[in-house]
Design a protein that fits this description.
The chain is of the alpha/beta class. The protein has 2 domains: about 50 residues, Roll (Vcp-like ATPase, Chain A, domain 2), CATH 3.10.330.20; about 180 residues, 3-Layer(aba) Sandwich (Rossmann fold), CATH 3.40.50.150. Helix content is about 20%, strand content about 30%. It has 6 helices and 15 strands. It has a 7-stranded mixed β-sheet, with helices on both faces. It has a 4-stranded antiparallel β-sheet with strand order 2-1-6-5, with no helix packed on it. β3 and β4 form a beta hairpin. The protein is elongated, with a radius of gyration of 21 Å. The mean pLDDT is about 95. The chain binds S-adenosylmethionine. The site of S-adenosylmethionine has 21 residues, from α4 and β8.
């Protein structure tokens, strides 16, 4: 568990998990006494300054234990804004994987139920749920292709390889509710959309988000050479 965060003079960030011990960096070490103090700027034994910040839920989410590929923040942002998820929403998420999406959403919605078939991934997600002290997330060892037991759902989010198998179970979703399908390949999107045409669902759009950061320091202002490009396509649907 992160106890404090340090920023060095170059803006590099360090997570410190144990402030009862000295913490070593390439700019020398910080003493346990300084790490535990109320000071917000502390100095290493070699004279370098570090800014000290308290961790928030956002930092813990960043460092969760990972198994399979997680949904990235850029995509989580789009899911929340496109579906209008809020404190009254009840959500079904499948598959749980590491629980990155489920744990993030639990912080803003009323309730999340998440289905996962792989026991190893359930253990990872349960570990992350415990670390984040989440109470409104239920992880079930369940195949989402076999059906959805929950009723009156506001949003269903599917990060599984063949989401078209879930189209026949959409009676669990409220009229007007959102179905979000997260698929890395356009061939999967194509199959899903063809199958969706046979069910009580309106396909609104398929979209992706590309995230490019900029280098801004002294007289340099340019886009970073690398960027977070394609992760997956989001296909958004609404239940009739
Ligand atoms: C890419 S991971 C999901 C990552 C997750 N969305 C996150 O943000 O951490 C896909 C997961 O779906 C699970 N899965 C695949 N088919 C499934 C099914 N039919 N029902 C439930 N889970 C399934 C896999 O075991 C895997 O853990």
């Amino acid at each position: 568990m992160i106890q404090t965060i340090l920023f060095d003079e170059e803006g590099k960030q360090y997570y410190v998990n144990d402030i009862s011990r000295d913490f070593h960096t390439k700019h020398g070490f910080l003493t346990a006494k300084d790490l535990q103090s109320k000071k917000v700027i502390i100095t290493s034994n070699t004279g370098h300054e570090f800014k000290k910040l308290n961790p928030t839920r956002r930092d813990v989410l960043d460092k969760i234990k990972r198994g399979p590929q997680i949904i990235t923040n850029k995509d989580i942002g789009l899911i929340i804004t496109e579906t209008g998820l809020n404190k009254d929403s009840v959500v079904l998420d499948a598959g749980t994987g590491s629980g990155a999406l489920a744990c993030f959403l639990a912080g803003i919605v009323k309730k999340v139920v998440s289905y996962e078939t792989n026991e190893k991934n359930i253990k990872i997600a349960e570990h992350n749920k415990k670390t984040l002290e989440i109470k409104n997330l239920t992880i079930k060892n369940k195949d989402v292709y076999d059906g959805i037991t929950e009723k009156d759902l506001d949003v269903i989010i599917l990060d599984v390889p063949e989401p078209h198998h879930v189209l026949k179970h959409l009676k669990s979703l409220k009229n007007g509710g959102f179905l979000v399908v997260y698929l890395p390949s356009l061939t999967q999107v194509d199959l899903f959309i063809k199958e969706a045409a046979k069910h009580d669902v309106i396909v609104l759009k398929t979209t992706e988000t590309l995230q490019r950061e900029w280098i801004i320091k002294r007289n340099i202002m340019r886009p970073d050479f690398s960027m977070l490009g394609h992760t997956a396509f989001l296909t958004l649907c609404r239940k009739v």
